[in-house]
Amino acid sequence: MYGKFVSAMYLLNIIFQSFFDLAFPIGLSILGSWLLVEYAGAPGWIYAPLVIMGVILGFVSMIKFILSATRALDRLEGQRQKDKNNGEKDGNGK
């Protein structure tokens, strides 16, 4: 029961972090383009390229995080399986 709860919380963390990795660059690009238009006098079309760049960077960041998190999860599962097999061989089955 405890192991499943920890795994569920780990996956929930991955979901929230990947959403944050997607939303943060988009938000920063919107903020940056608004600041450029309002305070630097940039033309309004600057929103389009900056938001598109934010979306692209957000997806790249999210995909990199998901790939690294799944590698870490696979490594953790492999270690658990290895520990479980070693415990059974030693006669200390858990």
Task: Explain what the structure shows.
The protein is mainly α. 87% of the residues lie in helices and 0% in strands. It contains two helices and no strands. Helix 1 packs antiparallel against helix 2 (47-90). The protein is rod-shaped and about 70 Å long.
Write a compact overview of the structure shown:
By secondary structure, the protein is mostly helical.
Protein traits:
single chain; 94 residues; mainly alpha; 0% strand; rod-shaped
H and E order: HH
Unreliable stretches (pLDDT < 50, length at least 5) are none
Counting DSSP H or I runs of 4 or more residues, the number of helices is 2
Shape call: rod-shaped
Secondary structure class reads: mainly alpha
Number of strands: 0
Which helices and strands, and how do they pair?
Blueprint: H1 2-39, H2 47-90
Helix pairs in contact: 1-2
